[in-house]
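Priority: medium. Attachment 1 of 2:
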């Protein structure tokens, strides 16, 4: 059993240079989640509400445009790059959720 698990891990690592389309799809979903969390939890977004309607529409349009284009770009990249983008988006989402807790923010400011 140990040899089998090592070989399956080795095969996974060896296949990271291949194009795996579902990594691209998951990367796009993670970026959309990250954008939604940022717009919901980030207090700096309140300053965005003070801007004009046109500026808000342009900023959100660019955000969601990138979220739509990223899976298209990731589909033509090796899966290791898509996996990196996925890990980066997941880390950023967890960071935003943790920093949204007021007690955590207070402890980090000290």
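Attachment 2 of 2:
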């Amino acid at each position: 059993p140990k040899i089998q698990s090592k070989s399956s891990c080795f095969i996974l690592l060896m296949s990271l240079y291949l194009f795996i389309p579902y990594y691209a799809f998951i990367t796009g979903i993670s970026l959309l989640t990250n954008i939604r969390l940022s717009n919901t939890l980030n207090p700096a977004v309140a300053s965005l509400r003070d801007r004009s309607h046109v500026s808000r529409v342009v900023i959100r349009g660019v955000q969601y445009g990138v979220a739509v284009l990223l899976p298209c770009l990731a589909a033509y990249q090796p899966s290791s790059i898509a996996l990196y983008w996925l890990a980066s988006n997941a880390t950023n989402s967890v960071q935003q959720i943790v920093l949204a807790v007021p007690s955590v923010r207070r402890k980090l400011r000290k």
